Amino acid sequence: DLAYIKEEGSQIHIGALTTHSEIEHSVLIKEKCSVLADTASVIADIQVRNKGTIGGSLAHADPAADYPACILALATEVVIKGGSGERTVPADKFFIDTFTTAVEENELITEVIVPVLKQGTGSSYQKFDNKASHFAVVGSSAVARMSGNNFDEIRIGITGAGATATRAKAVEDLLNGNQATD
Q1: Which of 64, 108, 147, 165 is least surrounded by CB atoms within 10 angstroms?
Q2: d(Cα 11, Cα 101) in Å, to the nearest integer?
Q3: How far, in Å, CA of 33 to CA of 37, rounded?
């Protein structure tokens, strides 16, 4: 069965055939990684959320899809299986180009592994969407852990602004280790 959501240690394992709606409504995901549920809640319309899957969305690698920004910000890993075995690809290495991923011919995504967010971590996904398709014209996901007013760690994923989703590393470098100000 490739439709599941389960916690194992400090990770949430999501089967590739888990629907957007299941992710959106998962109590576990809402408690441990709310930005993923928030992202799922704004994908397309209710019909797509009820049938579409996280594995299918990631494999399609549409540059305007919502999940890519989120999984980049979360430092997610994608488990891929094929004839030569199983491998795990970090989100930073997963998206290659428009509609192109690290999934090779005769391979399938079987699981998505999401780290449980640590105490003091905030997260958000925001997008400006096409009103007809609900695809992101541009979207951004941020995951930030703070100590007081200082950014201990921030990761930012951007979607819809190029050939593939990407991290805003220059912004991350500017903020990490520095104080949040107005």
Answers
A1: 147
A2: 23
A3: 7
